[in-house]
Amino acid sequence: MKKLNVMIVDDSALFRKFISDAVERTGAAIVQAVAADGNECLSILKQKTPDVVLLDINMAGINGIDVLRRIKESHEDIKVIMISSADNSDNALTVTALEIGALDFISKPRGNDWQRNLLSITSYLKVLFNYIIINKYYSISSKETAASVGKAKTEKERPTTPKQLDVEKEPDVVSKTSNIERQITKFKIDLVLIASSTGGPKALYDVCSKLPADLGVPVLIVQHMPADFTTIFANSLNNISKLKVSEAKDGDIPRAGHIYIAKGGKHMTVTKSPSNTMTIKLEDTPTVNGVKPAADVLFKSLAEEFFNLNMLAVVLTGMGKDGTDGLRELKKKAKCYVITQSERTCAVYGMPKSVYEANLSDEVLDIQDIASGISRRVMIK
Description:
Elements: E1 4-9, H1 13-25, E2 29-35, H2 38-44, E3 52-56, H3 64-74, E4 79-84, H4 91-100, E5 104-107, H5 114-148, H6 171-184, E6 191-196, H7 200-210, E7 219-223, H8 230-240, E8 244-247, E9 258-261, E10 267-272, E11 278-283, H9 295-305, E12 310-315, H10 324-333, E13 335-341, H11 351-357, E14 363-365, H12 367-378
Parallel strand pairs: 1-2, 1-3, 3-4, 4-5, 6-7, 6-12, 7-9, 8-9, 12-13, 13-14
Antiparallel strand pairs: 10-11
Helix pairs in contact: 1-5, 2-3, 3-4, 4-7, 7-12, 9-10
């Protein structure tokens, strides 16, 4: 398997060495370059183009946020992983970085057990690097194979999957699409669900900024994110959304035109109140799929308690398969239409791929078309 080229940017020589060791130990990447500040990073990028940049948020001179913006302007394909402080003082800046397009972040080690910290960061980077490799080289291989047999189209014309609706279709696919549209008009959506993980903050920024003020239904979002980050993230989304956005609280009653973000470190479920009203409940139960909150937990609670509702579920970019099992339950017990983000617009094509391969996706859309896809189905008269 090919290895990734990585650049490490941090103003601490000790931490540059620590991260270099972690990167090399993954077995999936090599350190191509190191830089002590933002200016040096940008200078190196004029000569080298790494696959991944591990970028410190707080540095003298040009800070990590400004460097990230410059990278995204000139090197859109480079994956950037932010390095945040150990004391959580960078939380707001980290959320901003994720919304700009950073793939994910790691925190600097806490305490004196450096060996344990090294193993933890190495383990996480290995998973993340392997997903990047699969996305990067599998996509290239697929395009080359298609070209060799004369079937390749331009990236704009080539559908990611047979169900993608924003590209030219063969006649039999058009027929299937028409059938889907006729079926969906038979019921009006009562609730929108969105699941996302790695790369999700930027995707959610795109979706939430485009949803109309008169959407008319509640929206429940599970974004894999640690505690202390989701409040900041919800407030940031609220600033750009026409809908009210807030971090979900225990006892909240989902209201139309309101977006609820699952609280980091807690599972978000829904229950029936004595008056038969949907109520949000936050549970500090074990992780599911290695995460908390988990979309599967929310989806399964809806399948158990509110199978009479008509739901629209959207699965965005992310590692792993969270959401697949829950959607399988929803499909069995309720009316649930599922949209998955296209491979070509995912930062990591993990969660949407799992749902698609389980034959649970009804429609595949590029990220820029998902908000209109939601509106089109929710606002059926």
